[in-house]
């Protein structure tokens, strides 16, 4: 038989084996609930509630009560879902039938397909590859959001995505069973998600193929991209994704610095192992207690001898403020995770911890309603400065020697300058209480309601400390009695988390997590398009840089040529260093109108000289001389306009600036020598003329109103607006003197003191 025939026989046998479960009779859900096929949802629910009460394992003595209870529950789940009920009514089967094993297989003593599969090197074990293993651990999207994600802050979770009729999913079932058996004792939870029933969750976690395994750490998702055929690879994947530098390697030179770092309000833990690599159980334990305990891994015989740890044993030592010897330790050949958690959870706080977050306050001073079992918290108020170290140290020694048990009284300290709102809320109004170095005894009734009392004496090291200690003990003994009450009560806000990251740290952390999620979400089908886009962008940038490089070389070549030409004309002047850019004067006409006026960028202006053919020789030199100092200003452009060409535009421009519409009769001869400053973006212009009103006012004040009206700039007298074309006889000007005050006007223009004439739009320039 050829390979193709074998292949089809093999596939057909697998299909027959999987369909064998269909032949297994699940039972009629309508008969199980005792309802008719046409029963309504209310009738089905009523029957379900009645049967559940009757067959509940805790209430029924029948030995088959548990099995019957499960059947009732499954039948109700099927009939309460309209889609599944319709499938059952139409076809007589649902998806549940495909993964339930028949109770009585037709060949009880042997597997009829075992020999066929063995010939092809694929032993198909129905018990190991049973997909019901995944259904038992399946979670929904709501359970993921409400339970799994919050728990992932302390407990890592492996989530396996699968679906029905997925042959690779069935093949990975034995490996998943081994993962559960190995990882759950270490504190890693395993859950499954049915992708067909929870498609939105799969899209959220970037699941592109099935089966797929993801790791959830503190709400962050990491996708395992390899095939699920090796438990060791999955374990290495978990180790690599643990938080960076969560466990530091401790050497003999830095053992003292590590143990003395308890000022971050965390206990120090040392992990000893005979091997040079740390086991996964210690990584998971360090992850669980990372907010309260800082762990260090020791691979040094010198440190082992110092703390008398056997070379062939595992050991975990916990240190508080006293670094000379551990406050708790456990030494075994193989330390169970449960033992580790018990020892660490019982010793996860310093002898005198700091109330630095709401979580620590909840743990040290839990809320209690029962007065006989109330737990007191004795808090020393200090500041975050070295001057109060001696006070905290003496209070720490007193707390360690205190006659009261930890179950009744807990000692702590707080920074007033970091928890100002909380401390101020415990300061009674109308009473002279100085909180600094004061001792307050609190009892929490609920989250925000606190009863408290201050000790009258401060904790002063230099003064009568014995009297303060005696007074503190008397106050604690009195308040521990159920009949005694506190003097004050207050409502407080949650403590500020002193260990939280700043805004910059959060941004950096979120950015790193985002990049990691993008990388984890990229599969083989996404990597090639992403690389293609990246290569295209880099190619475009490279071509642009190369073109800019060629343009720069060309500009340098032109500059050198100009320098050589200038040095050839005048050998006494430097060739390149003293080069001055030439001043370009553009003619304002229809072809250049848009570039010089309408399309000017914000902040740019065009200076226009109005002249005629007869006055060109006399007006151009003084205009050129006046604007020459401003040639390097990139926001200015210089131009000239022949009044013969632009008279119509000039007339319309002046009419737009007048407050009322009227026909102007402009004498072109009187317009010669006028200079306009045009702001194309803001739509306004300024005017210079020898007879401009601004110039007149600075020479002498107008004597009366009639004179003012005669010289009013809007009346247009100074540029020939009058109905008669005769010039004013007040002053006779020659063409050579028209631009005498132009330089001073430019200074006032750039100061912003010249008058601006605003218009609604720029008129069209005539085409000639």
Automatic annotation (TrEMBL):
One of its GO terms (cellular component) is endoplasmic reticulum membrane. The chain crosses the membrane at residues 527-551. SMART domains: DnaJ. One of its GO terms (biological process) is autophagy. It comes from the Eukaryota. InterPro entries: DnaJ_C16_autophagy_reg (IPR052448), DnaJ_domain (IPR001623), DnaJ_domain_CS (IPR018253), J_dom_sf (IPR036869), Thioredoxin-like_sf (IPR036249), Thioredoxin_domain (IPR013766). Residues 101-243 form the Thioredoxin domain. Keywords: Autophagy, Membrane, Signal, Transmembrane, Transmembrane helix. Residues 28-92 form the J domain. The keyword Signal applies. Residues 1-24 form the signal peptide. It is a single-pass type IV membrane protein. It is found in: Endoplasmic reticulum membrane. Plays an important role in regulating the size of autophagosomes during the formation process. PANTHER family: DNAJ HOMOLOG SUBFAMILY C MEMBER 16. This is DnaJ homolog subfamily C member 16. It comes from Acanthoscelides obtectus.
